Amino acid sequence: MSDEHYYLELCDNPVQFENASSVNNVFFDEANKQVFAVRSGGATGVVVKGPEDKSSVAFRMDDKGEVKCIKFSIGNKILAVQRTPKSVDFINFIPDYPHLEFSQECKMKNASILGFCWTNWNEIVFITDQGIEFYQVLPDKRSLKLLKSQSINVNWYMYCPETAVILLSTTFQGNVLQPFAFKSGTMSKMSKFEIELPVVPKPAKLNLSERDIAVANIYGQLYVMYLKHHSRTTDSPCAEVVLYQLPREGSCKKTNVLNLNTTGKFALNVVDNLVVVHHQSTQTSIIFDIKLREPDCALNVHQPVLPPRSIHPYRIPLTGPSAVPSQPPVPCELYSSSWSVFQPDIIISASEGYQWYLQVKLPPTVNLLQDKGKLIDFLLRRRDCKMVILSVCSQMLNGEDKGSLPVVATVFDKLNQVFKEYLEAEQTYTVAMESGPSRGSAARERPVRTQAVIDQSDMYTHVLSSFTEKKDVSHKFIIAVLMEYIRSLNQVQITVQHYLYELVIKTLVHHSLFYMLHQFLQYHVLSDSKPLACLLLSLEGTYPAAHQLSLDMLKRLSTANDEIVEVLLSKQQVLGALRFIRSVGGNDNISARKFLDAALQTADQMLFYTIFRFFEQRNLRLRGSPSFNPGEHCEEHVVYFKQVFGEQALMKQATV
Length: 656
What we know:
- Residues 26-144 form the Regulator of MON1-CCZ1 complex N-terminal domain.
- The structure is a single chain.
- By secondary structure, the chain is an alpha+beta fold.
- 29% of the residues lie in helices and 26% in strands.
- The longest helix is centred in the middle third of the chain and has 31 residues, at 405-435.
């Protein structure tokens, strides 16, 4: 199967660690994205591998029993190790601190520690079956200080390191969840909520399992994802993922349902704000975008965005003494029962000793999602979308996939709406910065220009300029597309750049559509600008009327008087230039030499006489003398005038 078939892949540079066959235990720390490979026997050897080489470390500890949980604090400063149900041991890894162990027992009597979570480099939470205990670690004193605790019966827990929220499963069925949020030494109890369990035939009862729950950040909001398996006796036995949005303040609410359309074993990831659901028995994955609305479904009920596909095949290179350089890599067993999936986007194969990041490949989605409007909505929300969106636009305008004009208009409108929102955010930020910070208001952050912002330059360079040169596309469609893009920009009040108008004019001229060009200019479909007027001037040889159209445009601009004079002089219309400059009241400031040079170049002696006399009269009116000042550099013109008309023809200074 070709690469274009797969829209999910495992990253090229995975974290490699000793596989399960050579170590006793493998642990994963979600906060630091680190894998701990632990080998016991005599002393306990630990190899820690992280996403970056600098986060990798190897060390030995005294063997004090089986390691149940092991994690570094943020920044690898303090190591926490749980070996018993009652206590957690700590080792300083801060430079110049004693590398000695110290221990902390849980405060609640008869409680068993289910696990622990680091919420800061020196703050840790113990989760027990009777509640939670929030501690500050004092590495210099080799002790812990209890900051806060809460008694509550706990079945299991889940931690989201991105938001520092811990979710506790309570009650007999485990479906009442109590979240706690942690920040800078404080612990806040959030609103508890109940997960709606599926109906099962009596007398059976269903308990909520931690295998069916995941916590993740999607579009900047915290969600609890519940993998809901329905009984086979129900009308709709297919599984679904139910999303509960968990705000910092206020109650948690059920917001989205993702229809999986099948049953079996599933695992969840979140990649680029997409919910990825892996199905083990079919060895395929599907993706959901909770911001895409389904027209035929009830509000917030979603179908997969794309058809099910396997993750792109991955090959593991052979290593070790038995490996032969020419030996081909071995295919990795995808969707293996030894895979463990962690949030948001991590897959670990303990048997093969690999930790991967799951990635979404956008190019294959282009041909899998036929609805262009929906495709653009989907792509605009992805990280690395710019070049894929531009390729969709090119594909939409070319070849067999050529879209209808309404589809083209829809795509342009979606792109320009995002562009407009960015421009407005940038303008708001600029105004706020110029006016200075107001009392009590938070410091503004400059808006981030994401890849979804596709401006006129992007469209011109990557799509429209090459599109206008296509031989197999009708010129009517080309012009219609260009005008549609200009309409879309005008609709959201974005100033159209002159190079887009130039593209329209060149296309019209190339196809000899001069009447249409005249109409566009006459009815101001193409906005006036100096660059556009200059382009029209250059087209005079092909389209003679362009000269007058250019002059009319320059006159309308009212700030282009100098350009109009230059144009008229270049056409040897010296008297016309003089009349124009007098009509706008600028004749007292114009350069005499420029006009006299232009008159000389016409070889028309009477024209030169008229222009020379005009400036003599101006000099007399302004300075009381017809003579030219030395700074005007007209000496050669005076000499020429004397040679042709005689010195007596020079205007005499008036006598009082």
